[in-house]
């Protein structure tokens, strides 16, 4: 029996869009009209590296049992009873409603584990809109945009943690493979690099761009003997150039591989440098919460090596600050020179990405940061930051609590993120900073 995941929520929060996104194809009809989904839909898909059964349900509504809405709710409740995991979806853009709160209270009484999904968080401040969902008491919300695909990597990670083990004996399997994706533009040398890592001609290579049409998974052991599941992806081009159906499928497979991986190797052609296509890929990896290592390929053909590195560093500093300190490994996949340095860099990046900081150590750093630069005023009132926790790694996530913490300006948030990265030596991995305001009804005014 496949693990069963049920998607629940009130009407028009984006359940069917999320269902289609997780299944990987359009099955459920999506429309802005509430109540389009009346009968639950079922499909199999691959989520978090596992084959699962997904159930899309009608919107949860308070209604009499004999009405259509009442029968729709009964069908959703029946789906929950046969599920191993529930995804409770709320609309972060429109905010919480009394119905959301009522159904969250009901879900807390059920025996099925629940992941809270804050949907429609696209845009610059979309993630901040998700914080209101904390008050539902269902744990940390996972911010996603089902329509645009944002945040799906973190949702896959959350689902992976809640699914029942495939084999009870494998719960703490020390030989679980590190999931690695090789990404980059066509003809950057991705397949040649895979062959160099494996020590065999596993992939067809050549000077023609786009030889690899699909993502190909290979399991192998690196020089330490550790297992690696490596996915070589078809190159991603600018959207305007993705015309043929095959290439559209290749681009989708590349993005899916990125969502499934833990570390991404971004292959750059050292003769071309880092252009907008590579930056877009790196930002997608960061948005999905993946650690990134740059493989600077064709290094043997570069004449001005200091100048090439300087130009790359300038681009990374100016355009990829959210992955500050990203490791760069110059190599030649064709000759094999420098390839031996790549997997140690990947392992180190994975270690940073997977690291949890103890609360005591975290708050000593936090207090030092506040002492060095106290938070600024917001609309003439003080922002009081009280303490920080790190609820999860993969990627490292810091939650800061305080009065009006959510009003913290962007430059101070960057100060905290950069300080955290430097203090705990986490170069090249995304760092999530979440802010939660606290109120005390008995406290006097802070002004």
Automatic annotation (TrEMBL):
Keywords: GTP-binding, Nucleotide-binding, Repeat, Ribosome biogenesis
CDD domains: EngA1 (cd01894), EngA2 (cd01895)
Entry binding sites for GTP 1: 9-16, 56-60, 119-122
Biological process per Gene Ontology, one example term: ribosome biogenesis
Residue sites binding GTP 2 per the record: 184-191, 232-236, 297-300
GO molecular function, one term: GTP binding
Domain EngA-type G positions: 3-167, 178-354
Record flagged with keyword Repeat: yes
Entries under InterPro entries matching the protein: AAA+_ATPase, G_ENGA, GTP-bd, GTPase_Der, KH_dom-like, KH_dom-like_a/b, P-loop_NTPase, Small_GTP-bd
SMART domains: AAA (SM00382)
Role, per record: GTPase that plays an essential role in the late steps of ribosome biogenesis.
Family, per entry: Belongs to the TRAFAC class TrmE-Era-EngA-EngB-Septin-like GTPase superfamily. EngA (Der) GTPase family.
Binding partners and assembly: Associates with the 50S ribosomal subunit.
UniProt name for this protein: GTPase Der
């Amino acid at each position: 029996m496949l693990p069963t995941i049920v998607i629940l929520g009130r009407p028009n929060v984006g359940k069917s869009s999320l269902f289609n996104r997780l299944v990987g194809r359009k099955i459920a009809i999506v429309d802005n009209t509430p109540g389009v989904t009346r009968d639950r839909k079922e499909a199999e898909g691959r989520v978090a590296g596992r084959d699962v059964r997904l159930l899309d349900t009608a919107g949860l509504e308070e209604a009499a049992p004999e009405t259509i809405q009442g029968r729709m709710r009964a069908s959703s409740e029946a789906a929950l009873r046969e599920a191993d995991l529930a995804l409770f979806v709320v609309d972060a853009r429109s905010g919480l409603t009394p119905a959301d709160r009522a159904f969250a209270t009901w879900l807390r009484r059920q025996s099925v584990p629940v992941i809270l999904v804050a949907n429609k968080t696209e845009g610059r401040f979309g993630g901040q809109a998700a914080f209101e969902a904390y008050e539902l008491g269902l744990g940390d919300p996972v911010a996603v945009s089902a329509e645009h695909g944002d945040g799906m990597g973190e949702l896959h990670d959350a689902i992976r943690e809640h699914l029942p083990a495939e084999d009870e004996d494998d719960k703490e399997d020390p030989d679980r493979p590190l999931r690695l994706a090789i990404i980059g533009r066509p003809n950057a040398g991705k397949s040649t690099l895979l062959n160099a890592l494996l020590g065999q001609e596993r992939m067809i290579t050549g000077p023609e761009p786009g030889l690899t049409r699909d993502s190909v998974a290979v399991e192998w052991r690196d020089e330490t003997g550790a297992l690696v599941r490596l996915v070589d992806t078809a190159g991603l081009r600018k959207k305007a150039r993705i015309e043929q159906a095959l290439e559209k499928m290749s681009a989708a497979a590349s993005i899916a591989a990125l969502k499934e991986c833990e570390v991404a190797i971004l292959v750059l052609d050292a003769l071309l440098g880092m252009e907008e296509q590579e930056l877009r890929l790196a930002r997608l990896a960061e948005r999905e919460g993946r650690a990134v290592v740059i493989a600077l390929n064709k290094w043997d053909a570069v004449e001005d090596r200091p100048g090439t590195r300087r130009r790359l560093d300038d681009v990374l500093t100016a355009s990829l600050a959210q992955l500050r300190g990203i490791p760069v490994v110059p190599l030649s996949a064709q000759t094999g020179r420098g390839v031996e340095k790549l997997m140690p860099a990947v392992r180190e990046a994975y270690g940073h990405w997977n690291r949890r900081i103890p609360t005591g150590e975290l708050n000593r750093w936090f207090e030092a940061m506040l002492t060095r630069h106290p938070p600024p005023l917001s609309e003439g009132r003080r922002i009081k930051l009280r303490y920080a926790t790190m609820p999860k790694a993969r990627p490292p996530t810091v939650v800061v609590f305080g009065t009006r913490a959510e009003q913290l300006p962007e430059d101070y948030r960057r100060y905290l993120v950069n300080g955290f990265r430097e203090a705990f030596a986490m170069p090249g991995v995304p760092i999530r900073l979440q802010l939660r305001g606290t109120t005390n009804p008995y406290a006097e005014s802070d002004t």
